[in-house]
Amino acid sequence: MVRVILAAMAVLVAAVTGIVGYRTYAFSAPPLLASVTPPDISTYAVDAEAAAARLGAAIRIRTVSIVNEGDDPAPFAQLHAWMQQTYPAFHAAARRELVNTLSLLYVWEGSDPAQPPMLLLAHQDVVPVPDETRGAWSDDPFGGVVRDGAVWGRGAIDDKGSLVAILEAAELLAAQGRRPTRTILFAFGHDEEIGGEGAQAMAQVLADRGVRAWFAIDEGLAIIDRHPLTGRPTALIGIAEKGFATLRVSAVGRPGHSSMPPPETAVSLVAEAVDRVHSMRIERQLGGGPAHAMMRALAPELSLTTRAAVANEWLFGPALQQRFAQDPAAMALIGTTVAPTMMNAGVRPNVLPGEATAMINFRLHPRDTAADILARARAGIADIEGVTLDWAEPPREASATSSVTSSSYALIAALSEASYGEAAVAPGLVLGGTDSRHYGSVAENVYRFAPMVLSSDDLETIHGNNERVSVENLERLIRFYAGLMEAGAMQ
Predict the structure, then answer these.
(1) What does the angle CA 445 – CA 291 – CA 245 come to, to the nearest 5 degrees?
(2) In 3-state terms, what secondary structure has residue 368?
(3) The pLDDT of residue 139 is above 90
(4) Catalytic residues
(5) What's the pLDDT score for residue 440?
(6) How far apart are CA 244 and CA 396, in angstroms?
């Protein structure tokens, strides 16, 4: 009997080993179904230093997002005038429209109306620089200084670098008398940093006109200088972005004096509810989002053990979970994140408040919906009397996932390789929000990528101190966008 059991176990081990080996061998980057040959972007006559000076001028125009009704819109009008003066050939070739007061929609008409247009996105607004952080900047954050091979200032990366690069590329082609075969649309929102109502309005204008773009491309991901799984440069093309939802946790208790407290107070009730929601089970795995496609694309770069683990998640899932748990970015990639961010209760230490509230922020993974998350959260605290849960504002679902087998993805990937050939190319998930989410209904696919080579230090400057973009990266952006326009649209 023992021999039979041992023999059966040996057969089982051999079978599992065979399955693991085969799946590991078969786990490889799929070939791009669409083959494209990009133009030689090295031949463009790009004056990177002059472009850097122009980006510095754009940074000096303080287009901080307009939050309050009394905020001055004049900087946006100044930026618009500067764009017209600085890029005359493009403005002569394209039709310009103001949408929602301050957003800009340009239409560069193509010669073949049967071809679906290309849609290029960027935003004009930047986040403010708090007074208490200005001392940490090496230069005036709105000085637009060019030094040490970089342009310094708020918006250099997010997102005036892309805005200026798109305009530089369009001006380069328009000044040569080039005309697109397919129409090129340019949508420059004015309030991306506070929700993107301008982008939403422009998307509605396009929808009302029956526009269905070949693809849209916006900011989002970039070329990271060291991927955590491969240790090598990797161009990550965003094919989806996470949703955003904030849960309000409210608890009602008996107000009174703290010297005679009841067994539970509003504060203790809300604290218990927050703890339960924070620790509720969230599905985290490679499937159901861009993570699996990213791993497949990077398969040739992965170590054998990592490749075996991701190819056989059914067997090595717990080990993968343990490894990902050590990296917040990795955990955010494979599932919805839950982050308690705010609490409010009471006015004095010796007074029991009658009500307490807390806010929990969710970044929704494409596999989850806001309705499902809310239902699970409510089920988890159903036995806590006096606590209610509701969305603080209408939630924003995760975007649809765009194709990695389309001709547009192949074009972006090819131009990325032309921009920085040392980098592998893979799809990725954008953890924050961009204007691009508003254009899903008017574009066949929406991608989020700008080929800047960024280190972890560079990433920390976005919305932080000493934001800057290298002149080399700016030139790379200009060549990429010019190549995109020429390969996809130009005669």
Answers:
(1) 75
(2) coil
(3) yes
(4) 125, 192
(5) 97
(6) 5
